[in-house]
């Protein structure tokens, strides 16, 4: 089994916070209302609460994750992005965040449309399946990539809708989302130069992080 | 706690009940800031003896797993209050109490009780205890209905709310089960039109049947199968009679018989009726979200996978309404095969969720 074409989420050595979380946190205005869809153990929500004084809510599919969040005092409900977003009224939140989750949804397009409906802005981060190491795994080894960050085999992976950065940009166009910010993170979790063309991001970007707005 | 003729309980039926009294237990100590009071709301046939031996049955308190020293509702930290509901039969005024107008038991002259009446009575008690804001209101099943009613009626007096295995309205199916139970009581000739206390009879058979039927709804098919299966009771083969051949029959009969020793038949009619009438959205023009509009209470909703009496969909409806009202809400569905009764049983996932929620809320509230 091949591993480590994509590294584990890189963390800030000083604070222990994940670099992609810090990047997301930078995109959020202080004091805003935020829904984190697929919030896991609440690490990002806690960061937003503590650093940005955010009124944060979460949806998480796993019971362990929900309990971890409750014990941090985070209002998180057990639920599923694919089925439960429909129940939220329009414009409930300033930001709806989908961090490393869109590839695990059954209907990414529907989910993205809900994010843009429920929130005034949406922040979406995802692993870039166009990264050169992924391409190498497929092209040269002829195998679906298995990485530390995405350690599943094709038959047991929850990640059923992988996309590349270019694919996601195309989806944003289709659903009429305006890209206010787009950042690609390299394997070290550092933002890549903005001046680089899309194809470079798509080849070298480990993750894409997008700040979107309804048109 | 007694309330005199000048302090009537204004009931939804339009009747001013006076005098009246409410029986309650407390555990732990109220802090100097009066900020650590927790109200436990009991379920249909529960009582105020949540964490002490029951004086009637001699059995341990009904929620010792949740309430006590070191438990999620830690009586070393919190001042815990639990009161018998209005219409009950454990010391709070109910149909078995004496009607001052006649000097006889109220029986069916007692006004029909609602969940909101129960909560009003509790609020009067809390006032008397000198507590402005409850740190947390907690309850399962009918207790959970009271929690929701508290949050809707007295939002500013509830810092945190933990409704478990409950619903914002009683379903048609649940009303149906209750009606079967009531009809069983009323079909007992010893019920005597509700005047059994005066006439020296007890509708024990009817009440036992009501309890047997209701008890099935508190369990799950899986739990029944696991516990009893088709096993015979003290015999190796069917007796070709209507004796309690099966363990499950024997178990239900025992549940019925032991219940009538501790519960008043008319109270059973009144309290089941209160649940039937509960529909929190109806009070707010049909919108449950409006019931919680502007609420600053922190909510944590818990349901159980095998609870078919108050299924997870009921809890989700509460969560959706709270979300729509922009309230702070956590929700977890606990995996359990024990049915509705799971909330009273050893369910580590429920305790973990409750403890996490309560501890986090206590930190925000500044409770040591």
Automatic annotation (TrEMBL), chain A:
InterPro entries linked to this entry: Methionine_synth_MetW, SAM-dependent_MTases_sf
Domain of life: Bacteria
Pfam hit, one: MetW
Stated name of the protein: Methionine biosynthesis protein MetW
From TrEMBL, chain B:
Cell compartment(s), UniProt: Cytoplasm
Coiled coil: none
Enzyme nomenclature, EC number: 2.3.1.31
Pfam families xrefs: Abhydrolase_1
Residues the record lists as binding substrate: 211, 341
UniProt-listed Gene3D superfamilies: 1.10.1740.110, alpha/beta hydrolase
Record-annotated active site: 141, 307, 340
Protein role: Transfers an acetyl group from acetyl-CoA to L-homoserine, forming acetyl-L-homoserine.
Family affiliation: Belongs to the AB hydrolase superfamily. MetX family.
UniProt-recorded name of the protein: Homoserine O-acetyltransferase
């Amino acid at each position: 089994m091949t591993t480590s074409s994509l590294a584990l989420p890189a963390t800030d050595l000083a604070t222990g916070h994940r670099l992609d979380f810090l990047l997301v946190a930078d995109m959020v205005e202080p004091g805003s209302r935020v829904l984190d869809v697929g919030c896991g153990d609440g690490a990002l929500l806690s960061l937003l609460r503590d650093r940005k004084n955010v009124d944060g809510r979460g949806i998480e599919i796993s019971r362990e994750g929900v309990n971890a969040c409750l014990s941090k005092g985070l209002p998180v409900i057990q639920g599923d992005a694919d089925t439960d977003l429909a129940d939220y009224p329009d414009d409930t939140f300033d930001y709806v965040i989908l961090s490393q989750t869109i590839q695990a949804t059954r209907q990414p397009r529907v989910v993205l449309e809900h994010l843009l409906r429920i929130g005034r802005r949406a922040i979406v981060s995802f692993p870039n399946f166009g990264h050169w190491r992924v391409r190498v795994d497929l092209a040269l080894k002829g195998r679906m990539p298995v990485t530390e960050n995405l350690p599943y085999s094709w038959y047991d992976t929850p990640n059923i809708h992988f996309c590349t950065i270019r694919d996601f940009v195309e989806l944003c166009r289709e659903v009429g989302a305006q890209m206010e910010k787009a950042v690609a993170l390299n394997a070290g979790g550092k933002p890549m130069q903005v001046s680089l063309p899309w194809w470079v991001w798509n080849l070298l970007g480990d993750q894409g992080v997008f700040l979107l707005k309804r048109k | 706690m007694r309330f005199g003729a000048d302090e009537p309980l204004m009931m939804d039926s339009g009747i001013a009940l006076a005098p009246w009294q409410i029986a309650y237990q407390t555990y732990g100590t109220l802090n100097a800031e009066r900020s650590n009071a927790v109200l436990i709301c009991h379920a249909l046939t529960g009582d105020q003896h949540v964490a002490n031996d029951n004086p009637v049955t001699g059995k341990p308190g009904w929620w010792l797993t949740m309430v006590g020293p070191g438990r999620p509702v830690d009586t070393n930290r919190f001042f815990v209050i639990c009161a018998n509901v209005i219409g009950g039969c454990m010391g709070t005024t109910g149909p078995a109490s004496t009607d001052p107008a006649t000097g006889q038991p109220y029986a069916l002259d007692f006004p029909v009780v609602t969940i909101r009446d129960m909560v009003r009575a509790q609020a009067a008690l809390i006032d008397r205890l000198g507590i402005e804001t409850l740190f947390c209101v907690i309850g399962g099943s009918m207790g959970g209905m009271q929690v929701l009613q508290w949050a809707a009626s007295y939002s500013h007096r509830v810092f945190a709310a933990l409704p478990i295995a409950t619903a914002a309205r009683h379903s048609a199916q649940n009303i149906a089960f209750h009606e079967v139970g009531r009809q069983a009581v009323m079909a007992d000739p010893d019920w005597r039109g509700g005047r059994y206390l005066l006439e020296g009879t007890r509708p024990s058979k009817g009440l036992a049947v009501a309890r047997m039927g209701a008890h099935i709804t508190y369990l799950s098919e899986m739990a029944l199968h696991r516990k009893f299966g088709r096993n015979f009771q003290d015999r190796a083969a069917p007796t070709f009679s209507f004796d309690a051949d099966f363990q499950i029959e024997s178990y239900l009969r025992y549940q019925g018989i032991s219940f009538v020793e501790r519960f008043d038949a008319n109270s059973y009619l009144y309290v089941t009726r209160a649940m039937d009438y509960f529909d929190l959205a109806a009070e707010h023009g049909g919108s449950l979200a409006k019931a919680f509009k502007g609420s600053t209470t922190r909510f944590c909703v818990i349901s159980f996978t095998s609870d078919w009496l108050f299924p997870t969909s009921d809890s989700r409806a509460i969560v959706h309404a709270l979300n729509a009202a922009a309230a702070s809400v956590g929700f977890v569905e606990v995996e359990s095969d024990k049915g509705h009764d799971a909330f009273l049983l050893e369910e580590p996932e429920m305790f973990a969720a409750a403890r996490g929620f309560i501890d986090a809320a206590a930190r925000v509230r500044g409770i040591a």
